[in-house]
């Protein structure tokens, strides 16, 4: 059990969090992660795959591989930018 002084200190810390970073305070209160925990790794994997495929197409003189890699790179970049813009519009 916490002492009265410890409870008061925790209440001050909680108030400080609510005032300085309300988004973090809400995430901690509800248990939901904030936007900082977004999953970016699928985009990075697809960008890497597209770059490798494009480079392999250049080295092997294969236009299909080269353009396939470009399509993956372009699609991934556009999807990432679209998602980021969509999330920023939701913020107040």
From TrEMBL:
Residue ranges crossing the lipid bilayer per the database entry: 41-60, 66-82
Keyword Transmembrane helix among UniProt keywords: yes
Keywords: Membrane, Transmembrane, Transmembrane helix
InterPro entries: DUF3040 (IPR021401)
Name listed for the protein in its UniProt record: DUF3040 domain-containing protein
């Amino acid at each position: 059990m916490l002492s009265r002084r410890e409870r008061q200190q925790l209440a001050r810390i909680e108030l400080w969090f609510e005032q300085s970073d309300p988004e973090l305070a809400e995430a901690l209160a509800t248990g939901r992660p904030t936007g900082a925990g977004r999953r970016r790794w699928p985009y990075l994997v697809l960008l890497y795959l597209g770059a490798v495929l494009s480079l392999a197409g250049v080295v092997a003189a294969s236009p299909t591989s080269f353009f396939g890699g470009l399509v993956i790179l372009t699609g991934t970049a556009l999807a990432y930018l679209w998602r980021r813009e969509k999330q920023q519009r939701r913020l107040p």
